[in-house]
Amino acid sequence: MTEALHYNTGFGNHFATEAIEGVLPEGRNSPQKVAHGLYAEQLSGSAFTAPRHENLRSWLYRIRPSVLQSSFSVLDRGKIRGPLFDEEPASPNQMRWNPLPVPEKTTDFLEGLVTFAGADSYGRGSAVHLYAANASMTDTYFYNSDGDFLLVPEVGRLRLRTEFGILEVSPGEIAVLPRGVRYQVVLLDPTARGYVCENFGLPFQLPYLGPIGANGLANPRDFQYPVAAFEKVEGDFKLITKFQGNLWQASLSHSPLDVVAWHGNYAPYKYDLSRFNVINTVSFDHCDPSIFTVLTSPSELPGTANVDFVIFPPRWLVAKDTFRPPYYHRNCMSEYMGLIFGVYDAKEDGGFIPGGGSLHNQMSAHGPDTTTFNRASTVDLQPVYMDNTLAFMFESSLVYKPTRFAVTSELLQQDYHSCWKDLPVNFKPIAKV
Asked: Of these residues, 14, 254, 263, 286, which one is catalytic?
Protein backbone atom coordinates (compact mmCIF):
# COMPACT_ATOMS: atom_id res chain seq x y z
CA MET A 1 0.00 0.00 0.00
CA THR A 2 1.39 3.38 -0.91
CA GLU A 3 2.63 5.05 2.29
CA ALA A 4 0.64 8.28 2.02
CA LEU A 5 0.90 9.73 5.52
CA HIS A 6 0.03 13.35 4.82
CA TYR A 7 -3.53 14.32 5.53
CA ASN A 8 -6.48 16.34 4.34
CA THR A 9 -7.59 18.69 7.12
CA GLY A 10 -10.91 20.16 8.18
CA PHE A 11 -13.95 18.56 9.84
CA GLY A 12 -16.88 17.56 7.64
CA ASN A 13 -15.54 19.16 4.47
CA HIS A 14 -15.68 17.63 1.01
CA PHE A 15 -12.34 16.09 0.05
CA ALA A 16 -10.95 14.95 -3.28
CA THR A 17 -7.75 12.88 -3.37
CA GLU A 18 -6.10 10.54 -5.88
CA ALA A 19 -3.04 8.30 -5.71
CA ILE A 20 -2.69 8.39 -9.51
CA GLU A 21 -3.18 11.68 -11.29
CA GLY A 22 -6.21 11.87 -13.54
CA VAL A 23 -8.31 9.15 -11.88
CA LEU A 24 -10.94 11.44 -10.37
CA PRO A 25 -13.59 12.13 -13.03
CA GLU A 26 -14.29 15.76 -13.79
CA GLY A 27 -17.85 17.02 -13.52
CA ARG A 28 -19.47 13.66 -12.77
CA ASN A 29 -19.39 10.87 -10.20
CA SER A 30 -19.99 7.74 -12.28
CA PRO A 31 -18.79 8.12 -15.88
CA GLN A 32 -19.45 5.35 -18.39
CA LYS A 33 -15.79 4.38 -18.13
CA VAL A 34 -13.56 5.31 -15.21
CA ALA A 35 -9.91 6.07 -15.94
CA HIS A 36 -7.47 3.13 -15.83
CA GLY A 37 -10.34 0.63 -15.90
CA LEU A 38 -11.41 1.30 -12.32
CA TYR A 39 -14.88 0.80 -10.84
CA ALA A 40 -16.96 3.62 -9.34
CA GLU A 41 -18.64 2.82 -6.02
CA GLN A 42 -20.51 5.03 -3.56
CA LEU A 43 -20.35 4.54 0.21
CA SER A 44 -23.29 6.22 1.94
CA GLY A 45 -23.26 7.13 5.63
CA SER A 46 -26.74 8.67 5.62
CA ALA A 47 -30.05 8.19 3.86
CA PHE A 48 -30.00 9.40 0.27
CA THR A 49 -32.64 12.01 1.11
CA ALA A 50 -30.97 13.40 4.25
CA PRO A 51 -30.77 17.22 4.25
CA ARG A 52 -27.87 18.40 2.14
CA HIS A 53 -25.83 19.69 5.11
CA GLU A 54 -26.28 16.30 6.85
CA ASN A 55 -25.83 14.10 3.79
CA LEU A 56 -22.75 11.85 4.08
CA ARG A 57 -21.31 9.97 1.15
CA SER A 58 -18.08 9.37 -0.71
CA TRP A 59 -17.32 8.08 -4.18
CA LEU A 60 -14.57 5.47 -4.36
CA TYR A 61 -12.70 4.59 -7.55
CA ARG A 62 -11.31 1.12 -6.99
CA ILE A 63 -9.65 -1.79 -8.72
CA ARG A 64 -12.46 -4.22 -7.84
CA PRO A 65 -15.98 -3.49 -6.56
CA SER A 66 -16.82 -4.58 -3.02
CA VAL A 67 -19.25 -7.26 -4.22
CA LEU A 68 -16.34 -9.57 -5.09
CA GLN A 69 -16.30 -11.78 -2.01
CA SER A 70 -17.73 -15.09 -0.84
CA SER A 71 -20.92 -15.44 1.18
CA PHE A 72 -20.69 -14.58 4.88
CA SER A 73 -20.89 -17.22 7.61
CA VAL A 74 -21.28 -16.69 11.35
CA LEU A 75 -18.06 -16.43 13.36
CA ASP A 76 -17.53 -16.79 17.11
CA ARG A 77 -17.95 -13.23 18.43
CA GLY A 78 -15.74 -13.74 21.48
CA LYS A 79 -16.43 -11.03 24.06
CA ILE A 80 -18.02 -8.55 21.62
CA ARG A 81 -21.65 -7.59 22.24
CA GLY A 82 -24.27 -5.13 20.95
CA PRO A 83 -26.19 -3.28 19.63
CA LEU A 84 -28.71 -5.14 21.84
CA PHE A 85 -27.67 -5.53 25.48
CA ASP A 86 -29.71 -8.02 27.48
CA GLU A 87 -27.20 -10.21 29.35
CA GLU A 88 -27.40 -8.25 32.61
CA PRO A 89 -29.78 -5.62 34.02
CA ALA A 90 -28.69 -2.02 34.16
CA SER A 91 -27.31 -1.14 37.56
CA PRO A 92 -27.61 2.04 39.69
CA ASN A 93 -24.41 1.04 41.52
CA GLN A 94 -21.17 2.87 40.90
CA MET A 95 -18.84 0.49 39.05
CA ARG A 96 -15.11 0.62 38.36
CA TRP A 97 -12.71 -1.72 36.58
CA ASN A 98 -8.98 -2.37 36.42
CA PRO A 99 -7.30 -2.34 33.00
CA LEU A 100 -7.40 -5.28 30.61
CA PRO A 101 -4.24 -7.37 30.96
CA VAL A 102 -1.85 -7.68 28.02
CA PRO A 103 -2.74 -10.95 26.23
CA GLU A 104 -0.42 -13.92 26.68
CA LYS A 105 -1.33 -15.56 23.38
CA THR A 106 -1.12 -13.89 19.98
CA THR A 107 -4.07 -11.48 19.79
CA ASP A 108 -4.88 -8.81 17.22
CA PHE A 109 -7.13 -5.77 17.66
CA LEU A 110 -10.35 -7.53 16.73
CA GLU A 111 -9.57 -10.63 18.82
CA GLY A 112 -8.69 -8.40 21.78
CA LEU A 113 -11.93 -6.39 21.71
CA VAL A 114 -14.09 -6.74 24.86
CA THR A 115 -17.51 -5.14 25.40
CA PHE A 116 -18.07 -3.71 28.90
CA ALA A 117 -21.40 -1.93 28.55
CA GLY A 118 -23.98 -0.71 26.07
CA ALA A 119 -27.00 1.55 25.78
CA ASP A 120 -29.60 0.61 23.19
CA SER A 121 -32.68 2.35 21.85
CA TYR A 122 -34.44 2.41 18.51
CA GLY A 123 -32.29 4.32 16.05
CA ARG A 124 -29.58 5.29 18.54
CA GLY A 125 -27.40 4.09 21.39
CA SER A 126 -23.72 3.36 21.98
CA ALA A 127 -21.39 0.74 23.43
CA VAL A 128 -18.18 0.81 25.46
CA HIS A 129 -15.44 -1.59 24.38
CA LEU A 130 -11.85 -1.99 25.52
CA TYR A 131 -9.08 -3.60 23.50
CA ALA A 132 -5.73 -5.22 24.34
CA ALA A 133 -3.56 -6.64 21.54
CA ASN A 134 -0.02 -7.81 20.85
CA ALA A 135 -0.23 -8.57 17.12
CA SER A 136 -1.22 -6.86 13.90
CA MET A 137 -4.05 -7.90 11.62
CA THR A 138 -2.33 -9.50 8.62
CA ASP A 139 -4.63 -11.47 6.33
CA THR A 140 -7.82 -10.11 7.94
CA TYR A 141 -9.84 -6.97 7.24
CA PHE A 142 -12.81 -5.62 9.17
CA TYR A 143 -15.78 -3.31 8.84
CA ASN A 144 -18.59 -2.50 11.26
CA SER A 145 -22.17 -2.67 9.99
CA ASP A 146 -23.65 -1.63 13.33
CA GLY A 147 -22.01 1.68 14.12
CA ASP A 148 -19.01 4.00 14.05
CA PHE A 149 -15.90 3.19 16.10
CA LEU A 150 -14.24 6.02 18.03
CA LEU A 151 -10.80 4.73 19.07
CA VAL A 152 -9.02 6.12 22.14
CA PRO A 153 -5.52 4.55 22.41
CA GLU A 154 -4.03 4.33 25.90
CA VAL A 155 -0.90 2.26 25.17
CA GLY A 156 0.77 1.73 21.79
CA ARG A 157 0.55 3.40 18.40
CA LEU A 158 -1.80 2.08 15.74
CA ARG A 159 -1.61 2.24 11.98
CA LEU A 160 -5.10 2.14 10.48
CA ARG A 161 -4.86 0.89 6.91
CA THR A 162 -8.23 1.87 5.44
CA GLU A 163 -9.92 1.95 2.05
CA PHE A 164 -9.43 5.72 2.10
CA GLY A 165 -5.74 5.68 2.98
CA ILE A 166 -3.60 5.43 6.09
CA LEU A 167 -4.08 6.99 9.52
CA GLU A 168 -1.58 6.65 12.35
CA VAL A 169 -2.94 7.29 15.84
CA SER A 170 -1.05 7.44 19.13
CA PRO A 171 -2.06 7.75 22.79
CA GLY A 172 -3.29 11.32 23.19
CA GLU A 173 -5.02 11.14 19.79
CA ILE A 174 -8.32 9.64 18.66
CA ALA A 175 -9.56 8.17 15.41
CA VAL A 176 -13.10 7.69 14.09
CA LEU A 177 -13.85 4.81 11.70
CA PRO A 178 -17.35 5.26 10.23
CA ARG A 179 -19.62 2.29 9.75
CA GLY A 180 -19.03 0.42 6.54
CA VAL A 181 -15.40 1.49 6.08
CA ARG A 182 -13.05 -1.46 5.59
CA TYR A 183 -9.72 -1.40 7.38
CA GLN A 184 -6.91 -3.27 9.06
CA VAL A 185 -5.25 -2.42 12.39
CA VAL A 186 -1.45 -2.70 12.51
CA LEU A 187 0.50 -2.33 15.76
CA LEU A 188 3.50 0.01 15.62
CA ASP A 189 4.60 -1.01 19.12
CA PRO A 190 4.80 -4.48 20.76
CA THR A 191 1.46 -4.06 22.55
CA ALA A 192 -1.58 -1.84 22.26
CA ARG A 193 -4.43 -1.09 24.63
CA GLY A 194 -7.25 1.41 24.66
CA TYR A 195 -10.94 2.21 24.54
CA VAL A 196 -13.63 2.23 21.85
CA CYS A 197 -16.95 4.06 21.80
CA GLU A 198 -19.26 2.40 19.28
CA ASN A 199 -21.89 4.89 18.15
CA PHE A 200 -25.15 3.43 16.81
CA GLY A 201 -26.82 6.83 16.40
CA LEU A 202 -26.20 9.92 14.30
CA PRO A 203 -22.56 10.38 13.27
CA PHE A 204 -20.26 12.40 15.49
CA GLN A 205 -20.08 16.10 14.81
CA LEU A 206 -18.64 19.17 16.48
CA PRO A 207 -20.82 20.57 19.26
CA TYR A 208 -22.55 23.92 18.90
CA LEU A 209 -20.44 26.64 20.49
CA GLY A 210 -23.34 28.90 21.47
CA PRO A 211 -22.15 31.90 23.51
CA ILE A 212 -18.54 30.68 23.33
CA GLY A 213 -18.53 32.16 19.83
CA ALA A 214 -16.54 31.34 16.75
CA ASN A 215 -13.42 29.85 18.37
CA GLY A 216 -12.67 27.31 21.05
CA LEU A 217 -12.88 23.62 21.95
CA ALA A 218 -12.00 21.43 18.92
CA ASN A 219 -11.29 23.51 15.82
CA PRO A 220 -12.38 22.05 12.45
CA ARG A 221 -8.99 22.58 10.77
CA ASP A 222 -7.26 20.26 13.24
CA PHE A 223 -9.12 17.12 12.13
CA GLN A 224 -7.10 15.03 9.67
CA TYR A 225 -8.38 12.79 6.90
CA PRO A 226 -6.30 10.30 4.87
CA VAL A 227 -5.22 10.84 1.31
CA ALA A 228 -5.73 8.11 -1.27
CA ALA A 229 -3.37 5.12 -1.02
CA PHE A 230 -3.98 1.69 -2.49
CA GLU A 231 -2.56 -1.80 -2.86
CA LYS A 232 -3.08 -4.32 -5.67
CA VAL A 233 -2.53 -7.61 -3.88
CA GLU A 234 -4.01 -11.04 -4.54
CA GLY A 235 -4.11 -13.91 -2.06
CA ASP A 236 -6.29 -15.60 0.55
CA PHE A 237 -7.81 -12.99 2.85
CA LYS A 238 -10.67 -12.86 5.36
CA LEU A 239 -13.27 -10.10 5.59
CA ILE A 240 -15.05 -9.84 8.95
CA THR A 241 -18.04 -7.65 9.71
CA LYS A 242 -19.91 -6.92 12.91
CA PHE A 243 -23.60 -7.21 12.03
CA GLN A 244 -26.35 -6.92 14.66
CA GLY A 245 -23.90 -7.83 17.39
CA ASN A 246 -22.54 -10.96 15.72
CA LEU A 247 -19.36 -11.43 13.73
CA TRP A 248 -19.61 -12.74 10.17
CA GLN A 249 -16.73 -13.84 7.94
CA ALA A 250 -16.29 -14.00 4.17
CA SER A 251 -13.29 -14.90 2.04
CA LEU A 252 -11.54 -12.58 -0.41
CA SER A 253 -9.05 -13.31 -3.18
CA HIS A 254 -7.64 -9.78 -3.02
CA SER A 255 -7.01 -6.90 -0.63
CA PRO A 256 -10.07 -4.62 -0.25
CA LEU A 257 -7.74 -1.63 0.20
CA ASP A 258 -7.67 -1.00 -3.54
CA VAL A 259 -9.22 2.49 -3.75
CA VAL A 260 -7.05 4.56 -6.12
CA ALA A 261 -9.00 7.81 -5.64
CA TRP A 262 -11.94 9.11 -3.66
CA HIS A 263 -13.97 12.24 -3.08
CA GLY A 264 -16.71 13.08 -0.59
CA ASN A 265 -17.35 13.85 3.07
CA TYR A 266 -17.71 10.34 4.55
CA ALA A 267 -14.31 9.01 5.58
CA PRO A 268 -12.23 8.05 8.62
CA TYR A 269 -10.40 10.81 10.48
CA LYS A 270 -8.10 11.49 13.44
CA TYR A 271 -7.66 14.28 15.97
CA ASP A 272 -4.81 15.22 18.31
CA LEU A 273 -6.38 15.92 21.72
CA SER A 274 -3.54 18.31 22.64
CA ARG A 275 -5.02 20.74 20.09
CA PHE A 276 -8.23 21.05 22.10
CA ASN A 277 -8.70 24.69 23.12
CA VAL A 278 -9.83 24.43 26.74
CA ILE A 279 -12.49 26.90 27.92
CA ASN A 280 -12.66 27.35 31.69
CA THR A 281 -13.70 29.79 34.42
CA VAL A 282 -11.40 32.71 35.24
CA SER A 283 -13.38 33.88 38.28
CA PHE A 284 -15.18 31.36 40.50
CA ASP A 285 -17.19 28.13 40.51
CA HIS A 286 -16.74 24.99 38.43
CA CYS A 287 -17.84 24.72 34.79
CA ASP A 288 -20.04 21.80 33.78
CA PRO A 289 -18.13 19.00 32.02
CA SER A 290 -20.02 19.72 28.80
CA ILE A 291 -17.54 22.56 28.25
CA PHE A 292 -14.95 19.87 27.43
CA THR A 293 -16.95 18.19 24.62
CA VAL A 294 -14.83 17.24 21.60
CA LEU A 295 -17.48 15.43 19.54
CA THR A 296 -21.19 14.82 19.94
CA SER A 297 -23.74 12.45 18.42
CA PRO A 298 -27.07 14.31 18.67
CA SER A 299 -30.39 12.72 19.58
CA GLU A 300 -33.91 13.74 18.58
CA LEU A 301 -33.98 16.01 21.66
CA PRO A 302 -32.10 19.28 21.08
CA GLY A 303 -29.22 19.66 23.52
CA THR A 304 -29.46 16.05 24.74
CA ALA A 305 -26.79 13.85 23.22
CA ASN A 306 -27.06 10.27 22.10
CA VAL A 307 -23.40 10.15 23.17
CA ASP A 308 -20.76 12.82 23.81
CA PHE A 309 -16.99 12.37 23.78
CA VAL A 310 -15.59 14.61 26.51
CA ILE A 311 -11.98 15.07 27.66
CA PHE A 312 -10.29 16.45 30.78
CA PRO A 313 -6.89 17.59 29.46
CA PRO A 314 -4.02 19.61 30.94
CA ARG A 315 -5.32 23.08 31.86
CA TRP A 316 -4.99 26.03 34.21
CA LEU A 317 -7.06 26.16 37.39
CA VAL A 318 -7.49 29.73 38.65
CA ALA A 319 -10.95 29.91 40.25
CA LYS A 320 -10.97 31.58 43.66
CA ASP A 321 -13.13 30.63 46.65
CA THR A 322 -14.08 27.47 44.76
CA PHE A 323 -13.98 23.73 45.26
CA ARG A 324 -11.93 23.11 42.13
CA PRO A 325 -12.24 19.36 41.49
CA PRO A 326 -15.43 17.99 39.90
CA TYR A 327 -18.32 18.47 42.33
CA TYR A 328 -20.50 15.75 43.85
CA HIS A 329 -23.11 15.04 41.29
CA ARG A 330 -26.21 13.12 40.21
CA ASN A 331 -26.93 13.31 36.51
CA CYS A 332 -29.74 12.37 34.11
CA MET A 333 -26.96 11.34 31.71
CA SER A 334 -24.91 8.13 32.06
CA GLU A 335 -21.13 8.43 32.23
CA TYR A 336 -18.36 5.97 31.39
CA MET A 337 -14.94 7.41 32.23
CA GLY A 338 -11.46 6.25 31.26
CA LEU A 339 -7.93 7.49 31.89
CA ILE A 340 -5.24 7.73 29.22
CA PHE A 341 -2.40 8.98 31.42
CA GLY A 342 -1.71 10.73 34.71
CA VAL A 343 -4.11 11.17 37.64
CA TYR A 344 -7.72 12.35 37.38
CA ASP A 345 -8.26 15.31 39.70
CA ALA A 346 -11.34 13.80 41.38
CA LYS A 347 -9.72 10.46 42.21
CA GLU A 348 -6.38 10.97 43.99
CA ASP A 349 -6.87 7.95 46.27
CA GLY A 350 -5.88 5.48 43.53
CA GLY A 351 -8.05 2.84 41.93
CA PHE A 352 -8.85 4.91 38.84
CA ILE A 353 -5.77 4.19 36.76
CA PRO A 354 -4.78 4.41 33.07
CA GLY A 355 -6.47 1.69 31.07
CA GLY A 356 -9.24 1.24 33.65
CA GLY A 357 -12.70 2.74 33.69
CA SER A 358 -15.74 3.64 35.75
CA LEU A 359 -19.48 3.70 35.08
CA HIS A 360 -22.00 6.00 36.75
CA ASN A 361 -25.45 5.45 35.30
CA GLN A 362 -28.34 7.89 35.37
CA MET A 363 -28.76 9.47 38.82
CA SER A 364 -25.97 7.38 40.38
CA ALA A 365 -24.21 9.70 42.84
CA HIS A 366 -20.48 10.21 42.27
CA GLY A 367 -17.71 12.67 42.91
CA PRO A 368 -14.32 13.20 44.56
CA ASP A 369 -12.90 10.56 46.88
CA THR A 370 -12.09 11.38 50.49
CA THR A 371 -8.45 12.31 49.92
CA THR A 372 -9.37 14.69 47.12
CA PHE A 373 -12.17 16.31 49.11
CA ASN A 374 -10.00 16.92 52.16
CA ARG A 375 -7.14 18.40 50.12
CA ALA A 376 -9.32 20.57 47.87
CA SER A 377 -11.26 21.94 50.84
CA THR A 378 -8.16 23.28 52.59
CA VAL A 379 -5.54 23.97 49.90
CA ASP A 380 -4.29 27.53 49.31
CA LEU A 381 -6.02 28.49 46.05
CA GLN A 382 -3.25 29.78 43.84
CA PRO A 383 -3.21 29.48 40.02
CA VAL A 384 -1.95 26.01 39.15
CA TYR A 385 -1.39 24.25 35.83
CA MET A 386 -2.69 20.68 35.78
CA ASP A 387 -0.12 18.85 33.69
CA ASN A 388 0.40 15.19 32.79
CA THR A 389 -3.26 14.24 32.92
CA LEU A 390 -5.75 13.15 30.28
CA ALA A 391 -9.06 11.57 31.19
CA PHE A 392 -12.16 11.21 29.01
CA MET A 393 -15.85 10.41 29.23
CA PHE A 394 -18.43 8.73 27.01
CA GLU A 395 -21.65 10.42 28.17
CA SER A 396 -25.06 9.22 27.00
CA SER A 397 -28.69 10.16 27.60
CA LEU A 398 -29.39 6.41 27.67
CA VAL A 399 -28.63 3.91 30.44
CA TYR A 400 -25.55 1.71 30.01
CA LYS A 401 -26.15 -1.98 30.72
CA PRO A 402 -23.02 -3.89 31.72
CA THR A 403 -22.16 -7.11 29.94
CA ARG A 404 -21.82 -10.40 31.78
CA PHE A 405 -18.05 -10.20 31.38
CA ALA A 406 -18.04 -6.76 33.00
CA VAL A 407 -19.95 -7.84 36.12
CA THR A 408 -18.27 -11.23 36.60
CA SER A 409 -14.68 -10.38 35.65
CA GLU A 410 -11.96 -10.10 38.29
CA LEU A 411 -11.29 -6.67 36.77
CA LEU A 412 -14.39 -5.30 38.53
CA GLN A 413 -13.38 -3.49 41.73
CA GLN A 414 -15.73 -4.77 44.42
CA ASP A 415 -14.74 -2.03 46.87
CA TYR A 416 -15.09 1.03 44.61
CA HIS A 417 -17.78 2.60 46.79
CA SER A 418 -15.41 2.54 49.78
CA CYS A 419 -13.52 5.54 48.36
CA TRP A 420 -16.27 7.69 49.90
CA LYS A 421 -16.86 5.86 53.19
CA ASP A 422 -14.54 8.09 55.26
CA LEU A 423 -16.02 11.39 54.16
CA PRO A 424 -16.43 13.35 57.41
CA VAL A 425 -19.53 15.02 58.76
CA ASN A 426 -18.39 18.63 59.11
CA PHE A 427 -21.78 20.12 59.91
CA LYS A 428 -21.74 22.26 63.08
CA PRO A 429 -25.18 23.66 63.81
CA ILE A 430 -25.38 26.88 65.75
CA ALA A 431 -26.89 26.21 69.18
CA LYS A 432 -30.14 28.03 69.93
CA VAL A 433 -29.83 30.84 72.45
From this structure: 286
